[in-house]
Amino acid sequence: MSIIEVNHVTKEYKLGQIHSLKTTALNQWRRLTGQPVEERAPFKALDDVNFSIEAGEVVGIIGHNGAGKSTILKLLANISKPSSGSISVKGKVAPLIEVGAGLIGDLTGRENIYLNGAILGISKAEITRKFDEIVAFAELEEFIDTPIKRYSSGMQVRLGFSIATSVESDILIVDEVLAVGDLAFQRKCFDRMEDLIKRQGKTVLLVSHNIRQVQRLCSRVIMLDHGRINLDGTPQAVCDSFYEQSDEKIKASTVLAPTRTDTSGELELMELYFLDHDDQRTDRLSYNHDCVVHFRIRALQRLDEVTFGFGFHTTDFLYLTTHNSEEQLHISHLPPGEHEIVCKIARLPLLPGVYSLRFGVTAGQAAGGIFYGENLKHFQVVGDVPITVREGFFALDAHWLLEGREVAEIPAISPNTCHICNAVHNRSIFEEK
Ligand SMILES: Nc1ncnc2c1ncn2[C@@H]1O[C@H](COP(=O)(O)OP(=O)(O)OP(=O)(O)O)[C@@H](O)[C@H]1O
């Protein structure tokens, strides 16, 4: 029997109720002035959702903003009820869903720990036994007798996470809240979650926009799309598909993507484009094929000792690599006017996805450079990647050897002639004799 079962669950909200004050005032005004009052149809945050989870599974829930991720967690934590369908949860749930949820502002950290324990059905004796550990993990020793309303949101999350993960429970439900803490604390939470999962075999449901984190922690991932389950499968398959869909969305909106440039006024970037391996202008480059980046610039004055550089970054500004002309192209001076600079890239090693380009120019002694721009041009890398390459942004050109030889060259069974009976045995039989 599954530990969690979600059967045909639909959750409806009335859209107008989200901004209730504003909507009420607006409707009142319309009634007074004889205008039709806007009545909106109920909106389905979840639409006929079905899944079950076995004990010990670690399930990530991903999807775009408003896909229904938090709504599912709230239903499972019994914070809200489905409009139709049924949910069965067997076991004690420790939810960590909203910053400050379950904490009472006027009570101190100490009082909140006991209160939360009671809500989770934990005895006072157990809480007393775990108290120091909870406070130490949350790093709140100094503030434990301060009312929670004086805590920052990060401090509240630390306390909430520490309580939820210290008490005995069967199912841990964690929403995006972890992103609120500082990086060092996020790391600590991540390590604790790994420990709960790997050593204690706890059932965990995790909502996160941090797909890499989901991929690392989870054994299964559910992707939601407009309140429906779009995919349910292995982290690799579901996260890959999510990346592909996000890349497509980004690609579709890239024309309007803002560029970021900073120039001293000595140089202008006139044009920037790629040529593919067939010398065609394109924004679609092929993985593992040669390509060329063209930069057309205008020097507004004579420039001395010029170096060009460019790099690739992801659409969320993770810098991947840079290359500069310093060692290959010594430009002692560049006269005013237009110039064309070309950089040839051999066997583009970027894995399929959407990326963007940055470009910079330094001249003379100017420490900060005379031109720098990023997000200048989006491009897509397409192509088939060998199954040896699984994740990340680059494919290494690498080869495996077994005892100094390419594995493929060694026959599965190596025949040897037996010196006793003259028959051909495979190597292991021969060696045993
Ligand atoms: N209390 C509510 N009243 C009305 N609508 C709501 C309420 N809670 C959520 N919704 C709506 O339901 C939809 C799903 O919301 P939910 O918070 O589950 O999305 P999510 O996938 O967690 O999004 P995000 O990634 O932005 O946190 C959204 O359109 C949201 O506006």
From TrEMBL:
Pfam family, one: Wzt_C
GO CC annotation terms, alphabetical: membrane
Keyword Membrane recorded: yes
This protein's UniProt keywords: ATP-binding, Cell membrane, Membrane, Nucleotide-binding, Transport
InterPro entries in the cross-refs: AAA+_ATPase (IPR003593), ABC_transporter-like_ATP-bd (IPR003439), ABC_transporter-like_CS (IPR017871), ABC_transpr_TagH-like (IPR015860), Bact_Polysacc_Export_ATP-bd (IPR050683), P-loop_NTPase (IPR027417), Wzt_C (IPR029439)
PROSITE patterns: ABC_TRANSPORTER_1, ABC_TRANSPORTER_2
CDD domains associated with the record: ABC_KpsT_Wzt (cd03220), Wzt_C-like (cd10147)
Membrane among keywords: yes
Domain ABC transporter: 21-251
GO molecular function, one term: ABC-type transporter activity
Domain of life from the UniProt record: Bacteria
Record family assignment: Belongs to the ABC transporter superfamily.
Protein name: Teichoic acid export ATP-binding protein TagH
